[in-house]
Design brief:
The complex is a heterodimer of chains A (380) and B (440). By secondary structure, chain A is an alpha/beta fold. Chain A has ten helices and twelve strands. Chain B has 440 residues and is mainly alpha-helical. The radius of gyration of chain B is 22 Å and the shape is globular. The chains are: A alpha/beta (380), B mainly alpha (440).
């Protein structure tokens, strides 16, 4: 090896990318070593204290340190899939493939998550055949499934077929000491009757961005009342996890990254000590905290949205701008690790990128500790 | 984009007319194999090369000089006649293999499209590897080397096959250099080329320098694009339109004056290896091997010797998105560099188009851009005609012979033709989601 010093070694983009991934995998190996602690229950608490609660997907060589989990209230994990936007059978099989990929991903998680949550917008234009196709695919998920509705599922027949397939759109349940609430946050005021719109025209209008016709999303007074009642008997010390399709705050109105009565809903949630809101609709890594409420966006399996031109929460560490030549980039699914105290670490399983994790401690500390690793590849 | 804009370098004649079926030009049809491992004997190859390239030009014809100087040249290894001469001697020197039966030119044979016309290559002791030898023609213009891009440059690439146990089989660089070090001619040539004693890095640099002269970018397509509308047959002209539109080839194989090879230099899972291998199990094994040993030679062994070869780019990046992904190969001279794909599993360009027409082979990691193409039988023939028009005119006779041979093979058997999938009468996911009866 003669005089390498004289000749600068040019590193290709690929080589640099490789080096970045190597450094990530070194991290994973360390994690793996730590996870061996799980064989001893005595060491389990230590493992958790050391923060070994990452949950990576499929065959990655990481055995998650779930040792501290066991009896109720001791922490658990669930997975999510969101925003698949399926068209009818022959129109776009790519989106179908991508949903199948997420199902494969989730089914490979070992150990299996306690349940899988679907974040809304299973269909693109609310048609029966779109929803049926989605329902059929979701049947192959091994873990129990909880569903949420999105505006793309709703505005063709005002939720009729979705309700037939999946039941009521607003509900709550308890799991291992955590109270879960699922809202229908994409109510719109009637803009269609006066204009004499057909169901398809109504649906197409809601499915569009940047149009002045449709109203802003809202949870609405009747549902807020339902929420108040549902939470009446829940002690404020109970951890709360709320699902809404749109973010339960106001980010960017032209794209309906917005819930118009967000403040009213937040007011109902504020008395609880630990509240997490998980939402779909935005198709990107999105993190926020308002008071004691922590917010996380979910990834889509269909397409990634760019970040909105204004209103981005300061706590959001942005994911890469996806490679426009790679239709799978910027897509993914994810795992939510619920701590024993009820707060959550959000793992974004980006299919073609390093996974990103946004920890509860990052949001609790106002961005001071556990800052997520920013993506290392420059945007295009 | 309807038509490509193709700017010719000044001084090149566009009037020479050679349709791909014209059959004129040098007689370069592949000769019967008479050398070791089925390759043309080295001396005959060298003679043939002398006819193909009569003078080395830098930059080679057909390439923008600024791009050549700024993008394609390695700093510290600028192209000089001494380096090219040394690299050429090394390229054809069988002493670079442990048993003296293989040179670079054995698997990158001048008479066989600078490849070997085998599905996978044969190394020392008649060991078969797992991957097909890509052509060294125009390889200098690729942004990374090997099917999985594990080498960033030809300078790095050239050093690896020599040390691979089932390719050229030298245990280490010292063993490979032994024959070179004892040869006074080499001593002098290395000294002249690099101003120092022979060493393994310079050996890689020299071979790369020679390979940078193997530029073959003068095809009927180039002449057509330069304005000679008779340079390509009507079928090939229709094929070009399909290539850029309905057949979606251009999504990855973009070909234009600043990107003359027709590759995006990226890695895509198109499903070729999904036909035979279970990715998930393999990926798990690969991760455990690579987490213990990150040596480039270990990676090389996995890629050449084991089933993990089928994981492709994943071996390099360990990114699940790269499982089963291989480099987009250049489309230049594709008519004479078969068989096709990383494993040489497709014998003809009809098979290649059939593969894409049915939407590749469905698997979890299939690239998002792959979908059924609905090409008719005539359209497939047109695309194939265009692909044959991408062969440099210096190989016109060889190209014509390859066309006839493939046409005969395709007439007998089209193993990947699947009309139901190609025309979306059945969708790849349908059976899986809805059972054998399909969607209602």
């Amino acid at each position: 090896m003669s005089d390498n010093t004289k000749i600068p070694h040019i590193k290709s983009v690929e080589t640099r990318h490789l080096e970045e991934r190597e450094s990530m995998f070194r991290g994973l190996q360390n994690l793996d070593r730590r996870s061996f602690l799980k064989v001893s229950t005595g060491a389990a608490a230590a493992a958790l204290a050391a923060g070994a609660s990452n949950h990576f997907h499929s065959f990655l060589p990481v055995n998650v340190a779930y040792a501290a989990e066991g009896p109720a209230g001791q922490g658990f994990s669930f997975a999510y899939i969101s925003d698949s936007h399926l068209y009818a059978k022959k129109t776009n099989e790519r989106f179908v493939r991508q949903l199948l990929r997420a199902v494969d991903d989730i089914n490979k998680i070992d150990p299996q998550p306690d349940f899988v949550f679907y974040g809304g917008d299973l269909a693109q234009l609310g048609r029966k055949e779109e929803l049926d196709l989605g329902a059929q695919i979701l049947k192959s998920i091994k873990a129990p499934l909880h569903m949420m509705v999105g505006e793309h599922d709703w505005y063709f027949d005002m939720g009729q077929h979705w309700n037939e397939l999946f039941g009521p759109q607003t509900y709550s349940f308890d799991h291992k000491g955590v109270h879960f609430v699922v809202l229908m946050s994409v109510q719109e005021k009637d803009f269609w009757t006066a204009r004499g719109m057909s169901p398809a025209e109504r649906m197409h209008t809601v499915a569009g961005l940047d149009n002045a016709l449709q109203s802003a999303f809202e949870v609405g007074a009747p549902q807020r009342e339902w929420l108040r009642k549902d939470l009446e008997k829940v002690p404020t010390s109970t951890p709360l996890i709320v699902f809404s399709h749109s973010p339960l705050y106001k980010l960017y109105r032209p794209w309906n990254f917005w819930t118009d009565d967000a403040e009213d809903v937040q007011a109902i949630l504020q008395r609880f000590e630990r509240v997490t809101v998980l939402h779909g609709h935005t198709h990107q890594v999105l993190s926020n905290r308002i008071g004691n409420i922590q917010f996380h966006g979910m990834l889509s399996t269909a397409w990634p949205w760019p970040y909105a031109p204004q209103g981005l929460p300061a706590l959001t560490v942005q994911m890469n701008r996806p490679n426009p030549f790679d239709p799978n980039d910027g897509l993914g699914d994810g795992t939510i690790n619920v701590h024993p105290d009820g707060l959550v670490d959000m793992l974004y399983n980006l299919w073609n990128r390093n996974p990103m994790q946004v920890r509860a401690s990052y949001l609790s500390s106002g961005g001071k500790s556990d800052v997520p690793l920013a993506p290392t590849l420059a945007s295009y | 984009m309807k038509k490509l804009v193709w700017v010719r370098a000044p001084g090149m004649t566009a009037s020479i007319y050679l349709a791909c079926a014209a059959g004129t030009g040098l007689s370069l049809a592949a000769d019967p194999a008479t050398g070791p491992h089925g390759a043309m004997p080295i001396a005959a190859q060298e003679q043939r090369l002398d006819k193909l390239i009569t003078r080395y030009a830098t930059p080679p014809a057909g390439i923008d000089p600024v791009a050549w100087a700024s993008i394609y040249m390695m700093t510290g290894n600028e192209l000089t006649p001494d380096r090219i001469a040394l690299g050429r001697k090394l390229y054809f020197d069988t002493r670079l293999s442990k048993d003296g039966t293989l040179a670079c030119a054995t698997c990158h044979d001048v008479s066989r499209g600078f490849s070997d016309h085998r599905s996978v290559s044969e190394g020392i002791g008649d060991h078969l590897g797992k991957r097909s030898a890509p052509t060294t023609m125009n390889a200098a213009l690729l942004q990374s080397q090997f099917w999985d891009g594990r080498a960033p440059s030809l300078d790095e690439q050239a050093k690896l096959p020599i040390l691979n146990p089932i390719e050229m089989g030298h245990p280490d660089a010292a063993s490979a250099m032994a024959s070179v070090n004892t040869d006074p001619t080499y001593q002098a040539m290395f000294q002249k080329a690099y101003g120092r004693a022979p060493n393994y890095d310079d050996l890689g640099r020299a071979i790369a320098s020679f390979e940078r002269t193997l530029i073959f970018l003068d095809a009927p397509f180039d002449r057509y694009a330069a304005g000679d509308l008779k340079a390509m047959s009507l079928a090939a002209q229709r094929g070009l339109d399909l290539f850029n539109n309905k057949a979606r080839c251009v999504s990855c194989h973009m070909i234009n004056s600043s990107n003359p090879l027709g590759t995006d230099n990226l890695f895509h899972n198109i499903g070729v290896s999904a036909r035979t291998k279970n990715f998930e199990a393999l990926a798990g094994q690969a991760i455990s091997v690579l987490s213990k040993n990150n040596d480039p030679k270990e990676l090389d062994k996995l890629a050449i010797e084991t089933d993990m070869s089928e994981l492709g780019r994943f071996l390099v990046t360990k990114n699940r998105g790269d499982i089963g992904a291989f480099k987009t190969e250049q489309v230049r001279n594709v008519g004479i560099t078969g068989p096709y794909m990383h494993d040489g599993s497709l014998k003809t360009l009809w098979d290649v188009v059939d593969h894409y027409n049915k939407g590749g082979e469905t698997n979890t990691y299939l690239d998002g851009g792959i979908e059924p193409l609905n090409l008719s039988e005539n359209e497939i023939d047109d695309v194939v005609a265009f692909l044959f028009a991408l062969t440099d005119t210096r190989f016109a006779a060889q190209n014509e012979a390859a066309f006839r041979e493939q046409q005969a093979l395709a007439a007998k058997s089209r193993p990947l033709r699947d009309n139901a999938l190609a025309h979306r009468e059945m969708l790849p996911f349908e059976q899986r989601v809805m059972g054998p009866s399909g969607l209602k």
